Each structure stands twice: as structure tokens, then as C-alpha cells.
Amino acid sequence: MSRKTLSAETVAIVKATAPVLAEHGATIIRHFYRHLLHDHPKLELLFNPANQGTGEEKTRGSQQEAFRGDFFGQEGARGAALTNVLNGSMTSLDDLPALKATVMRIAHRHASLDIRPEHYPIIGQYFLASVKAILGDVATDEIMAAWREAYGVLADLFIEVERDLMQKNAHAPGGWEGFRPFVVRQKVKESEDAASFYLSPKDGGPVPHYEAGQYVTFRLEVPEFSRRGGNTVYRNYSLSTAPGKGYFRVTIKREFGAKGNPDGVCSRFFHEHVREGDVLDVSTPFGEFTLVDSPRPLVFIGAGIGITAVFSLFQSALDRGIDRPIYFFLMMRDGRHHPLRREIEALAQRHPNVTLHRCYSQPSAEDELGRDYETHGRLGLGTLGRNLPGNDCEFYFTGPIPFMRTIRGALHLFGVAADRVHYECYGPHGPEIEADVR
Ligand SMILES: Cc1cc2nc3c(=O)[nH]c(=O)nc-3n(C[C@H](O)[C@H](O)[C@H](O)COP(=O)(O)OP(=O)(O)OC[C@H]3O[C@@H](n4cnc5c(N)ncnc54)[C@H](O)[C@@H]3O)c2cc1C
Ligand code: HEM
């Protein structure tokens, strides 16, 4: 990581003024987005409007689409994430090791979107202009100079880490830079609202190795999605198999708009328009939600479509021949809304070290307790507590943000060490997941 440091004076100013910035964070970020996206229509395409706090009225998602709906906070999670991180990072710039985990997570996301060094001065310019516009005279020249310097150091840090990640992927066997055309070889219905897409490179070359739990970014042209900069949409999808199968597979849930809200742009496109034989632009795999080297039992926990990355880890652990106890807890609405069901059940049957625990929140008449699922209800503290082998395990989970908060809180209550807790968010990182842990 970058060795550039800030003067003690700059650090002192940034730390002293951070609370004011935090207090006005939502207003600053709205101002920032409005001006940035207005002046840079091409950059606008990179951002998902569903993740922004630009002042558009949004309602909380229904239970049915809880997975995505939950990250629409008042200001939008992405807005919150950006201010939190800018604020948090800038005030920890004198403690780079502490910043590393946050920087790495964001850098993977940026690199997967092909964010380039030349983007950083633009973001910095608009961010600082918004700080000045909102804080007015409070933001003196001295304060602005300190924040400018701090942003520069943070930007350099991201640029360096992202360049390393991109180069590593580009030079790996079968790797590439940016996006590569892939052909959809197969489209398979997985459940009432999820389908899998099997992809291989159009040029016939090999699929690169990836780590189970990683995701790719799709760059799609969606005609219905028109913005001033064009129709391009970027979305991340976890690879939903272990590596080494000779293809990429993603499993995508169709997101219906609740209460008259629009349907999910990209998932609708995949479900309604993408056919076998179509060609799609795909990034190399990124992400740090991967199996850690550890002798402990493994516990995988997934809810809804969050099962995809967890399944990849589960399958990979079995492919590697791991024969210590593996627990797989999942929460679905019912058997019809249970993607990858057959694969999970077949693997659990074949491997005596696997214990599968399925929670159905609203089992249908076809679902039989004991045969199709183990618990009628939601997965939480009680079910986990009764069925876990103890707390000395490696825990991996994904799901809707409130679900993740419940699981994170439960693991904390069970006394699980923080470094054995691993999770991925299927949207901007939700700081509230850790809310019950502090
Ligand atoms: C690392 C990572 C891995 C992921 N892996 C997977 C995966 O394996 N499978 C998967 O299915 N998804 C996954 N996702 C989520 C995926 O990237 C998309 O976010 C998801 O498919 C929704 O995208 P969309 O374009 O369909 O919906 P968007 O257009 O982004 O909309 C999101 C939601 O908001 C609602 N909405 C849109 N506009 C409004 C509005 N104005 N008011 C209220 N509601 C609104 C939509 O109905 C939808 O439910 C992952 C995300 C990340 C970050
Ligand atoms: C120091 C500067 C920056 C900081 C602190 C920052 C912070 C963040 C954070 C916190 C996220 C959410 C990631 C997650 O939760 O996993 C994010 C995502 C993102 N960032 Fe940045 N970022 C910076 C610079 C940039 C630049 C220069 C660009 C280029 C345009 C950019 C584009 C994006 C995009 C497109 C996303 C995904 C958002 C979405 O899904 O809508 N960021 N960034």
C-alpha cells in the first residue's frame, strides 16, 4: 500500500472537522451526486441509481423483495457509504493498516467496474466543491486545503491498490483487462424467480481461475434503460459455482418492483431478454469473500439469492476434499423459491460431514417438514444456537441486510471471534450489519 503520509497538521485539521462533515454528510452527498452526474453523463452510467441518495423518493421494499429493498435508507446506502468512508478513511489516513480492509473491499468493487486513475480527480473536485458549497464560510481555505490533501492521499491509495488488482487479473492465465465478450451457453430456470446463466469466452479461450465466493461485473446495453450517457448498465453477480468447471455461472433473481416501483433493470433484462447464444461483456472475477485457510469447522449461512456466493464456497470446500464438519444453514420463503436446491441437497446427501439446515419462512403445501426443510420460520439466534456445534468455526454468510445484521449479532452473542466472521453484501456495504456488535 501507498507510503504517502499526511503532515500532522493536516491530520489534526481533518480529524477536528470530520464531525461537521459527518453532520452534513447526506446534504453534501446529494449535492455531489447532482452536480457530478449532471456534468458527467458517461460517469453517471457507472452508478446504480437504486443505490444513490440523490433525493429521489424511494420506498422500502416489500418483504418479497427484501433482499434489495432494505438498502434504501433515507439517503440511500451508497450516499451514506461514500460519506462514511470518505470521512472514516480520511480521519484514519495516519493509520494505514487500520484502513486496509475497507480500502481492499472498495478497491475490488472499483476494479470490477473498471474505475480508472483519471476518474479520481473528477470525484475529488466535485466532492470538495460540494463540501465548500454546503459548509460555506465554516470551510475556511485552511480546512479545504487539508481535505484536498487528505483526498489526494486516499485517492493515490485506491489507485495503487486497484491498479495492482487489475494487473494481477489481466496477467493471470486466461485473464484480461476491463471487459471480455462471453457467450451465454445455457440459461436454466432455478426457481420461481431465479435463473442460472452459464458463460464461456466468445474467443474460445480458457476461463481463468477464480476464488470461490468472488463476483464478476456485467456491462450490459439495456435499451429500456436510457440515460443521457447511453444505455449501459453495470452490475455485480457472484459466481455461483466452485472454480474449475470450465465456465462461469451466475444465478440471478428477478427483482420485481414493489408498490408500483420499477422492476430491477438488470435482473429483468437477464430474465426477459438474455437468451442462449447472446454475447455479454464480463469483467474478471473480484472480491474477498473467499475461503480462509483454517482448520476449523465451516459454517455457511445464506438467505434468498444470497445463497449464490455461499453455495460457491460450500461446493469449493467439498471439491477440495475438506472432510471436517460443514454446516449449511439456509433461509428461503419456500421450496419453490429456493435456488440451487437440488445441487445443495445432492451434495449434502453425498457428504456425511455436511449438516444441512433449511428454514422456510412460508412453506407451501408441497413442502414437508423433515423432508424438505427442518425449520418453519426465520433463521435467527434460536435456530442457530440450537444447531451450531459451538463458536469455534469459520462463519460465511450473505443475505438481505437485516438478515445479515441478525446473524452478525447472533455470532457476536455466541462469542465468535471477529476474524472468523466473513460476509458479502449484495449492494453497497451495510455498516448497520455491525450495529449490534459494538
Ligand atoms: C458482490 C455482489 C454480488 C451479487 N451477487 C448476486 C447474485 O449472485 N445474484 C443476484 O441475483 N444478485 C446479486 N447481486 C445483486 C445484483 O448486483 C443487482 O443489484 C440485482 O440483480 C438488482 O439489480 P437490478 O438492476 O435488477 O435492480 P435495480 O434496477 O438496481 O433495482 C434494485 C431494486 O430496487 C427497486 N427499485 C428500482 N428503482 C426504485 C425506485 N425508484 N423506488 C423503489 N424501488 C426501486 C427494484 O425493483 C429492485 O428491486 C450482487 C451484488 C453484489 C454487489
Ligand atoms: C477516495 C475516493 C472514493 C471513495 C472513498 C469511494 C467509496 C466508495 C464506496 C464506499 C463504495 C461502496 C462499495 C461497497 O460498499 O462495497 C463505492 C462504490 C462505487 N464507487 Fe467509489 N469511491 C471513491 C472513488 C470513486 C471514483 C473515482 C469512482 C469513479 C467514477 C467511483 C465509482 C464508484 C462506483 C461506480 C461504485 C459502485 C456504486 C454503485 O453500485 O452504484 N468511486 N465507492
Q: Strands across the major sheet, in which order?
A: 4-3-6-1-2-5
What count of structural domains? 3
Structural class: alpha/beta
Task: Look at the structure and give the CATH class of the largest domain.
Answer: Mainly Alpha
Described by strand count, sense and barrel closure, the largest sheet is: 6 strands, antiparallel
Which fold name is given in CATH as the topology of the largest domain?
Answer: Globin-like
User: Shape, please?
Assistant: globular
From the N-terminal CA to the C-terminal CA, the straight-line distance is 28 Å
Protein name: nitric oxide dioxygenase
Cofactor: heme b
Domain Globin: 5-163
Enzyme class: oxidoreductase
Keywords summarizing the entry:
alpha/beta, binds flavin-adenine dinucleotide, 438 residues, Globin-like, 6-stranded parallel beta sheet, Elongation Factor Tu (Ef-tu), domain 3, 12 strands
Structural description of this entry:
The chain has 438 residues and is an alpha/beta fold. It folds into 3 domains: 8-171, Globins (Globin-like); 180-282, Translation factors (Elongation Factor Tu (Ef-tu), domain 3); 298-434, Rossmann fold, CATH 3.40.50. The chain has 13 helices and 12 strands. It has helices at 8-23, 25-39, 41-44, 66-69, 77-91, 96-112, 119-135, 141-171, 265-272, 307-319, 341-350, 381-387, 401-413; strands spanning 180-191, 194-201, 215-221, 232-238, 248-253, 279-282, 298-303, 326-332, 354-360, 375-376, 394-398, 421-423. The chain has a 6-stranded antiparallel beta sheet with strand order 4-3-6-1-2-5, covered by helices on one side. The site of protoporphyrin IX containing FE has 25 residues, from helix 5, helix 6, helix 7 and helix 8. Residues 5-163 form the Globin domain. InterPro entries: Cbr1-like_FAD-bd_dom, FAD-bd_FR_type, FNR_nucleotide-bd, Globin, Globin-like_sf, Globin/Proto, OxRdtase_FAD/NAD-bd, Riboflavin_synthase-like_b-brl. Keywords: Heme, Iron, Metal-binding, NAD, NADP, Oxygen transport, Transport.
